[in-house]
Amino acid sequence: MASSSVFPPTTIISSNQSNGEMNVLQKHVSFFDRNNDGIIYPWETFQGFRAIGCGIALSTASAIFINLGLSSKTRPGKFPSLLFPIEIKNITRAKHGSDSGVYDTEGRFVPVKFEEIFHKHCHANSNALTSEELAAMLKANGDPKDYAGRLASWTEWKILYLLGKDKNGLLHKETVRAVYDGSLFEQMERNKLSAQKM
């Protein structure tokens, strides 16, 4: 996939209004609930990644990693399922450590923590992260003993950087903001569909 910015530098795309009753973390993942039944199965995760322009290998790896990692956490007290479903209503139970803190424990967006990412870690450009700045942020947020949380954060941010950076290798603030409520995924799918029609 080409390394082009998903959004023009000054654009923020609003989230799907039909998800108004969801918290922001639930909105973030609901894009991958392809049949809107409140449950995300591995094949839906795969379909979602393909819809935003990821290749088969990355989509497959993401489906395995995400569903294996989150299924049991979002299904407390239930017998493990070999289908590895993720229940969106319980997604806050899957919140991991070594993250930015932009989602609170109830899945709400914390503006102060979001601004902190750019205030603390952006040096070359006040509204965009370079690859080196992103690596420094991940290192600063990582708890040395939290191996699972560090791996999850590294994977999430590296995929976002791969898909959302512009031609100069910058990950813009607007792009990062849009991923938190899931509107980035919706826009990327629209962009892919538009490109296919051309």
UniProtKB/TrEMBL annotation:
Keywords: Membrane, Transmembrane, Transmembrane helix. SUPFAM superfamilies: EF-hand. GO terms for molecular function: calcium ion binding; monooxygenase activity. The chain crosses the membrane at residues 49-70. Belongs to the caleosin family. This is Peroxygenase. It comes from Thalictrum thalictroides.
